[in-house]
Amino acid sequence: MPRTAKLPSILAADDDVVVQRLVAHSFEAAGLYVTVYESGKALLDNVNEDTLVCLVDMVMPEVSGMDCLRAIKKKFPNTEVVILTNVNDASNAIEAMRQGAFDYLTKPFDPDELCLSVRKAMQLAKASRENEGLREAVNSAPSLGSSPLVGDAPSIARILKIGNRIAKSKNSVLINGESGTGKGVMARYLHSISDRADKPFITVSCPSLPKDLLESEMFGHEKGAFSGAIQKRLGKVELAHGGTLFLDEIGEMSLDLQPKLLSFIQERTFYRVGGEKQHEADVRIIAATNRDLQQMSQDGGFREDLYFRLNVLPITMPPLRERPGDTLLLAQHFLKRAAKREASPAPSLSVEAAQALQAHDWPGNVRELENVIERAFTLREEEDSIQGEDLPAELRAAKSQASTATPSLAGKTLSEIEKIAIEQTLEHCKGNKAESARMLGISEKSIYNKMKRFQSGS
Ligand SMILES: Nc1ncnc2c1ncn2[C@@H]1O[C@H](COP(=O)(O)OP(=O)(O)OP(=O)(O)O)[C@@H](O)[C@H]1O
């Protein structure tokens, strides 16, 4: 018999009654609605195109988790499947990932990790219904050597929404944001959901070359154009023909080269260095910067006309400290990625480590988080978990400062402690109730109800 059935978006199947209960409780506590079945067959009888995610035990009599996975993916490719396995079943789990499972978790599972994984799977399932092409972007587009775009903060969701429209346009995009916020990831994502996705995505890193070489890097050169130009070389503009040219750190481009780029954007024509023949290339420009180009153009450091041409479709990547809910999501993602690379189960994050990650300000944004997690994964003391001590000292210090700032909870009632936790989380999330709910592991509705109760003093 199904245990809970409010919304049909998540289905689960496990033949073990204890696991059935645990799954139902974990989801309920996280504000997610699930219907739990006692067999793979019962689940397959009930799955339909509205099902976002199925959580299936790998080993079940008659219809196994793998059978469920194959049947679901064949009939409902936009339904995501998360597999539950035993620790010693890693090779099957890897096979399941190859067959299109979204994720696998080993038993005994951590309820937070389970809910996080299922939420991510739901996010992907919803997004791929809106846009079939998104799957590649979220699950990684190997041909681009890119990262998937992970994040479900409202600010990121808004960007993804406008991103779907921006991707279809031919106009230039300017991605602003602090270093490490994922401007490059966003550029690849836009390319991967555009109708140029099967054409090249070529990056030019503007600060990496002296200005003369940058012109040749972009537009190519003819043989003998300068000493060292022993043969003709195609530029990145030509290599990107039909696709996207990503100009990283455009604010570093010299004023001498900027008119040539402007002319290319306007006319789609260019000359190779040392050449007299005009060439054409059909290229969509995406530029990124961590500098204030508008201010630079007012101060004369960047051409204003080029700024306007680039800034037709602006996107701003929010810093990680403004989307604290994404910190753990990204941390889990980097852990899973590292674990998959080594074909081992992903270690969990201890409460202490998770708190330290959330207390940190992340001046280096996602790149800094990625490095911290990679380091912790490699140096961890315990095989199956990341502890506070596995993190760099400055993160542990930030956490202990945060905890000394917390008022003592001794002598308070549970209800008072709950109130403090909710108020502090809301403050941490700048009043964002959806993010706070996710962090606290309760539903947004529970936050509203509890706040109402606190206000009425009951
Ligand atoms: N949303 C995200 N999901 C997954 N990985 C991310 C995300 N955002 C950033 N990263 C990872 O963080 C690192 C930095 O990202 P990226 O290079 O895109 O940032 P950037 O803003 O372009 O940085 P810079 O301004 O220094 O060039 C990369 O390794 C990238 O894979």
Question: What report would you give on this structure?
Answer:
The chain is of the alpha/beta class. The protein folds into four domains: 1-130, Rossmann fold, CATH 3.40.50.2300; 154-316, 3-Layer(aba) Sandwich (Rossmann fold), CATH 3.40.50; 326-405, Helicase, Ruva Protein, domain 3 (Orthogonal Bundle); 414-456, Orthogonal Bundle (Arc Repressor Mutant, subunit A), CATH 1.10.10. The protein has 20 helices and 14 strands. It has helices at 17-29, 40-46, 65-75, 90-98, 111-130, 134-139, 154-168, 183-192, 211-219, 236-239, 258-267, 293-299, 304-310, 324-341, 351-359, 365-379, 393-404, 414-428, 433-440, 444-456, and strands spanning 10-13, 35-37, 53-57, 80-86, 103-107, 173-176, 201-205, 244-248, 269-271, 278-280, 284-289, 313-316, 348-349, 385-386. The strands form four sheets. It has a five-stranded parallel sheet with strand order 2-1-3-4-5, with helices on both faces. It has a five-stranded parallel sheet with strand order 7-8-11-6-12, sandwiched between helices. A hairpin with a 6-residue loop joins β9 (269-271) and β10 (278-280). The structure holds adenosine-5'-triphosphate (ATP). Residues 147-151, 177, 179-185, 248, 288, 290, 330, 366-367, 370 line the site of adenosine-5'-triphosphate (ATP).
